[in-house]
Each structure stands twice: as structure tokens, then as C-alpha cells.
Amino acid sequence: MRVSGVLLIILIFGHLFVNLMLGEGIHGLDFGFVAGKLASPFWQWWDVLMLWLALIHGANGMRTIVNDYVTHKGTRKVLVWALWLSAGFLILLGTLVVFTFDPCIPNLSDGSVLTEICSAQG
Question: Which Pfam families match (predicted)?
Fold first, then answer.
């Protein structure tokens, strides 16, 4: 928990700095910005690591709360299983979204940078 907490602080503040402080700040956040970030393997792994650590860290914290406050053994077991299953599902789903994201799927005809990139790819 301590290691994931420290790593999460670094990842989250790095994420916030790049998204909000560099470039146009919050006004520059749009589909094109996200598509550009997710086109880079570095940012894909950054976001996936942040997702994995946040979900595991959060699920483990919730497990601790369930173990502390739920007294019935059967209910505790069901809740802990539900926590880990939901965390696992969200990790799987989030990972698939990050690594299979294709910005060229929407019909882009507004003359944006993505229109040029997508038309050049084929």
C-alpha cells in the first residue's frame, strides 16, 4: 500500500501537470489531445500503470474496511470477492480501452489534425 501510494502520487501529479499545465491547459483538453496522448506507448503505459495501481490500491483499502466492519463471515467473503472481481473487470476493461483506442473511428470531417493523421494512415 505504501509503495503503490507513492507511485500513485507521482503518476497522478505527472498526469495532472501534463494535462493542465503544459500547452493550452484545460482549454486544450479535447478528443484530439487524448487521442494524441494515447497514440504514444509511453503515455499508454503511464495511464495503464496509474489505472492498475489505483484500482488495486483502492480495492485493497476497501477490503481492509470490509474486514474491519463486516462481522458475518459469509457476507465478508461475498463482499471481498465482489471487490476483487469488480477491480479485475475494471482493470481488464480499462487496459483494453487504452491499448485498442483508435482515434480514426469517428467520422472526422472538421479539418482537425486528426483528420490529416487518419487520412494519411489509409
Answer: Sdh_cyt
